[in-house]
């Protein structure tokens, strides 16, 4: 079962790559809509990549604009999806 640090690192890495920013920037400025490369198209790409990388499907109710605009909220929904997958596997 991946821990929260693994999920956070995965979200950070994939987000930085898709938004074309350094991970350190995201650590100091986690509001994704603060970056000029932020767009709805990139968020779709990010959600798809995170779901594939983590082997999960995000709950549709979690895919709100507020959740997709902030690294911490995106990490939280990814962690919930991983936890749900782990619970189902038990």
Characterize the structure shown.
The chain has helices at 4-19, 23-28, 40-54, 65-68, 71-89. The protein is 67% helix and 0% strand. It is globular, with a radius of gyration of 12 Å. It starts with a helix and ends with a helix. It is built from five helices and no strands. Helix 1 runs antiparallel to helix 3 and helix 1 packs across helix 5 (71-89). By secondary structure, the chain is mostly helical.
What's the average pLDDT? 92
What share of residues is helical? Answer: 55-70%
Report the span from N to C terminus.
11 Å
Number of strands: 0
Largest sheet: none
What are the salient characteristics of this protein?
single chain; about 90 residues; mainly alpha
Characterize this entry briefly.
The protein is mostly helical and 90 residues long.
Itemize the secondary structure elements and their pairings.
Layout: H1 4-19, H2 23-28, H3 40-54, H4 65-68, H5 71-89
Helix pairs in contact: 1-3, 1-5
């Amino acid at each position: 079962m991946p821990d929260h640090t693994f999920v956070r690192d995965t979200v950070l890495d994939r987000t930085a790559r898709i938004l074309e920013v350094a991970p350190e920037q995201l650590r100091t400025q986690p509001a994704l809509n603060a970056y000029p490369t932020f767009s709805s198209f990139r968020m779709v790409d990010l959600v798809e990549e995170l779901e594939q990388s983590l082997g999960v499907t995000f709950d549709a109710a979690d895919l709100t604009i507020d959740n997709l605009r902030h690294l911490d909220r995106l990490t939280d929904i990814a962690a919930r999806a991983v936890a749900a997958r782990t619970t189902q596997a038990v």
